[in-house]
């Protein structure tokens, strides 16, 4: 249930995220170009468009933000993120790369893209709670 505001419950926006590990076990991250989280690293993802399934939204968001094609697997977890006048209900899915040799290129609302290992995650400025959440789900690189 969405948190209440003085005018009643806040609207809920369905969103998705992609937990993509490459053949070396590194996590695909994008640096966000737009709010929320502008300038911070996160997994590719975004809003679900009207009439779109969650899995279609995941594949589209990865393609738009990184140029990569993925096969969408099982949901690994779900988080609720309060926004400005909205609540984001984010379902995150495990994904595999359709082509292991493909090179990501930042696009859409990402201004940079990288594959990050555990040491990289320690030094990158990630969106609040990202690393702890992925760790709790067992979805971080070793």
TrEMBL record:
Hydrolase in keyword set: yes
Protein name: ADP-ribose pyrophosphatase YjhB, NUDIX family
Domain Nudix hydrolase: 11-139
Coiled-coil annotated spans: none
Source superkingdom: Bacteria
Single GO MF annotation: hydrolase activity
Database matches in InterPro entries: Nudix_hydrolase, NUDIX_hydrolase-like_dom_sf, NUDIX_hydrolase_CS, NUDIX_hydrolase_dom
Keywords: Hydrolase
PROSITE patterns, A to Z: NUDIX (PS51462), NUDIX_BOX (PS00893)
Listed cofactors: Mg(2+)
Family: Belongs to the Nudix hydrolase family.
């Amino acid at each position: 249930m969405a948190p209440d505001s003085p005018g009643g419950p806040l609207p809920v926006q369905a969103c998705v995220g992609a937990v993509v590990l490459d053949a070396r076990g590194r996590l695909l991250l994008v640096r966000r170009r737009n709010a929320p989280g502008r300038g911070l690293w996160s997994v590719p993802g975004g809003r679900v468009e009207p009439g779109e399934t969650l899995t279609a939204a995941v594949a589209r968001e990865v393609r738009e933000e990184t140029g990569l094609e993925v096969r969408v697997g099982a949901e690994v977890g779900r988080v609720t993120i309060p926004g400005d006048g909205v609540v984001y209900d984010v379902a995150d899915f495990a994904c595999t790369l359709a082509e292991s040799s493909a090179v990501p290129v930042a696009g859409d609302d990402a201004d940079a893209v990288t594959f990050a290992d555990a040491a990289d995650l320690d030094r990158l400025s990630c969106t609040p709670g990202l690393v702890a959440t992925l760790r709790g789900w067992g979805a971080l690189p070793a």
